[in-house]
Amino acid sequence: MAAMGRTQRRAGWALMALLLADLLALSDMLAVMSVDLGSESMKVAIVKPGVPMEIVLNKESRRKTPVTVTLKENERFFGDSAASMAIKNPKATLRYFQQLLGKKEDNPHVALYRELFPEHELGFDPQRQTVRFQISPQLQFSPEEVLGMVLNYSRSLAEDFAEQPIKDAVVTVPAFFNQAERRAVLQAARMAGLKVLQLINDNTATALSYGVFRRKDINTTAQNIMFYDMGSGSTVCTIVTYQTVKTKEAGMQPQLQIQGVGFDRTLGGLEMELRLREHLAGLFNEQRKGQSVKDVRENPRAMAKLLREANRVKTVLSANADHMAQIEGLMDDVDFKAKVTRAEFEELCADLFERVPGPVQQALQSAKMNLDEIEQVILVGGATRVPKVQEVLLKAVGKEELGKNINADEAAAMGAVYQAAALSKAFKVKPFIVRDAVIYPILVEFTREVDEEAGVRSLKHNKRVLFSRMGPYPQRKVITFNRYSHDFNFHINYGDLGFLGPEDLRVFGSQNLTTVKLKGVGESFRKYPNHESKGIKAHFNLDESGVLSLDRVESVFETLVEDSTEEESTLTKLGNTISSLFGGGTTADSKENGTSTIQEEEESLAEGSKDEPGEQAERREEGEPPVEDTSLPPPPEPKGSVASEGEKATDKENGDKSEAQKPSDKGEARSEGVPPAPGEEKKQQPSRKQRMVEEVGVELVVLDLPDLSEDELARSAQKLQDLTARDLEKQEREQAANSLEAFIFETQDKLYQSEYQEVSTEQQREEISGRLSAASTWLEDEGFGATTVMLKEKLAELRKLCHGLFFRVEERKKWPERLSALDNLLNHSSMFLKGARLIPEMDQIFTEVEMTTLERVINETWAWKNATLAEQAKLPTTEKPVLLSKDIEAKMMALDREVQYLLNKAKFAKPRPKPKDKNETRAEPPLNASASDQGERVIHPPGQTEDAQPISEPETETRGSEPADTGPLELEGSGAESEQKQQPTGQRPALKNDEL
């Protein structure tokens, strides 16, 4: 039994060790990241255990990384390296490619990109009607693939900073991105192997960052804050309401709600730089007027230099009235130098500054607010640093000042990484409810047959709003189609986009999203001919990323069945209850038929405000139920109690299920699988409702922009993996070549140093020098085509050749320090032993065996040292030494172990009792004292307390013997020395040789 118990304990410890190893491995995957994907640059942030929200530094130790990629035949460059390559190779350097995401070839933004960057050749993808970058006949990349490269690079930066792998991320996108653009970003992330927890709007991420760091200032009183974000490529104005609301799970919690959004897709710092670049190009042409030279605008390298200089001049003019633009060797080795004033810059961008108030007015209109309700206007984005932008905006909002109390560059990245930590299961953060808003309304369109007065049947087109403009999301909706008994189609399109201008509508692209073709509706009706149809239910989901999906379509039927609850036993009822809790409740018949008996929700009434004029009256006349929306309505404006956003997202479909389980006012029975209340078990219920659900086949025809197929995604992902592997191989080869070259030069230099010449012969040095010269020649002649393995093998050969020489030098360097330490230890040990032997016999705490053992170790160490030094002196310096530093360290450890043993014993030894005084009196014990109480009672001398009990004479024990009545010595850890616990009076534990 004891052996079995030990076996079980060992198995338990092994299992615990395995679980601990799994937990430690899992802890290496806990970090999450965010990517604030801007038009010109990106910011990456991480959060991991022990490291709160932190901006990642790139390889150049900068907090901001250019969104630039240089693609060449055999190598890639990212970030600052790619930005510098834009001057040397502008055709292969891709920038500002995000505006091509989700766009077809005929989109105005594609034409604008060709105009701004004529050096890029945009090919045509006939399958998706999109464009792709034609770097060379062999190199072609879609915008999604280029973005996937950038996301993969951002992850590598985050992993290097976090020192652990990262796979989960939250990525920011502009609030005005439509469905096609959002899906394109998600596809790019899939190509990079990055799991996107959420696509968060950059304005929402900024608002979240602002609220998280000011949660103490948020209360039940609503605060309306306007964020004006002008970046490099676009401008977005957002109105956000902050206040605390009551949630079911966590009580009062802060919440931000997006109330209004306005935007301008092309108003930003890039447009200002392009205007300034055009101005500088004109000045350069004027300076060379009369010379037979071509226009500078026809030279891509010169235009790339001018764009970089325009960016610098724009930044300087934000703080200075004028500045000198100068470029060395702009074109044909001709330098350029010209003075630019702030007034000239503002005149060049006058029409752009007139567009600054536009997003403000759009945001106010969508929020149905006025400027008096806005408490503060906060600037976000780098382009808001332009003085004229601030001047025009301040006049437009009518405030005394503009808020600058937020990091304009990093706020979105910090808000996004906070959301990433909240969505990750590895972190627990303080709740902060985020209620984003739908920018573009989405509706469902379908046709149905109606009876005219003359008895003629005709088709009528119907529209139902699925997600309204500025409605909250994430959100689920269920639309019920009645009076359909055969297969039919319906369409998912954008709603009223009248708030967009004509140019924005052209850039927006297709307003038709998807055509849904249902198959199997008629078959479901034939399968249940005696059941009452409850309609065809389509379940929609607008997720946290703002991406719409059709989860499923079901054909629902209902019928009355006989109740057999009285015949069921109590165990059967209990079994049904338990099975229903775990998703049971399916009958045998339903399983055979491939359907399930479910507890469907009671369907809510249609939203009358979403019907076309006269639609409800017409349906009432025809007796047709409306198209139903079973989603929960958005919570009211919180005055003290508001449901959280998470509840809205999860309870859309299940919120009414509890209502279906309640008995109706008309005495309807419960659904199958739900037992009656205790008080109702005795009542006989003749029938109950049973709801049957049949899955309907769905075929989706995407109309806005076809998504990449799974095969195409896999090919693109493999293409990016191959490029990454090639880059890693290139880096490894370069590192191997650099290591080989450095070893050759360093070793050749060492051969002329005196310390290396002393331990080597002339012949040895000549052999090494000759091999090094041959390797250097090989590296120059054939090293360019050598593989990484060949370079590493060559380096290993040279290191093996020089190992003996380097070993002798290193050993001679270590001798003085090691020998000095050994001498000091021997001297101190000898003095300690001498002092121990001088202790009187009455006070001696060490046994003779212990002191003899220490003396033997000291003598052996002295003898080994003297003998080894004598033998080493006879050897020539060019041979392998017999005096090794590792042997010296081993001798020191053995001697130190013996000394430490005795020191620890002396540290915890108790003093012997003093001899008793002859005049000491003894108190008589009481008559009723027990035998154990009749001990000696000592009258202590002055200054000694009663607690200082006399200690009995310890038994003399030899080292290594087992004490008779002493328990085992307790150690804090394996092989570790620990303090001995206080033993009872009269007992002293003996230390064994293996208990050190």
Automatic annotation (TrEMBL):
Ranges of compositional bias, category Polar residues: 571-580
GO molecular-function term, one example from the UniProt record: ATP binding
Subcellular location: Endoplasmic reticulum lumen
Signal peptide from the UniProt entry: 1-25
UniProt biased composition (Basic and acidic residues): 608-623, 645-671, 914-923
A GO CC term assigned to this protein in UniProt: endoplasmic reticulum chaperone complex
Superkingdom of source: Eukaryota
GO biological process, one term: endoplasmic reticulum unfolded protein response
One Pfam family this sequence matches: HSP70
InterPro entries named in the record: ATPase_NBD, Heat_shock_70_CS, HSP70_C_sf, HSP70_peptide-bd_sf, Hsp_70_fam
Positions of region (Disordered): 564-691, 906-996
Main localization of the protein described in the UniProt heading: endoplasmic reticulum
Alphabetical list of Gene3D superfamilies matching this protein: 1.20.1270.10, 3.30.30.30, 3.30.420.40, Actin, Chain A, domain 4, Substrate Binding Domain Of DNAk, Chain A, domain 1
Keywords: ATP-binding, Chaperone, Endoplasmic reticulum, Nucleotide-binding, Signal
Keyword Plastid: no
Subunit structure: Part of a large chaperone multiprotein complex comprising DNAJB11, HSP90B1, HSPA5, HYOU, PDIA2, PDIA4, PDIA6, PPIB, SDF2L1, UGGT1 and very small amounts of ERP29, but not, or at very low levels, CALR nor CANX.
Function of the molecule: Has a pivotal role in cytoprotective cellular mechanisms triggered by oxygen deprivation. Promotes HSPA5/BiP-mediated ATP nucleotide exchange and thereby activates the unfolded protein response (UPR) pathway in the presence of endoplasmic reticulum stress. May play a role as a molecular chaperone and participate in protein folding.
Family: Belongs to the heat shock protein 70 family.
PANTHER family, alphabetized: HSC70CB, ISOFORM G-RELATED, HYPOXIA UP-REGULATED PROTEIN 1
Protein name: Hypoxia up-regulated protein 1
Organism: Myotis davidii
Lineage: Eukaryota, Metazoa, Chordata, Craniata, Vertebrata
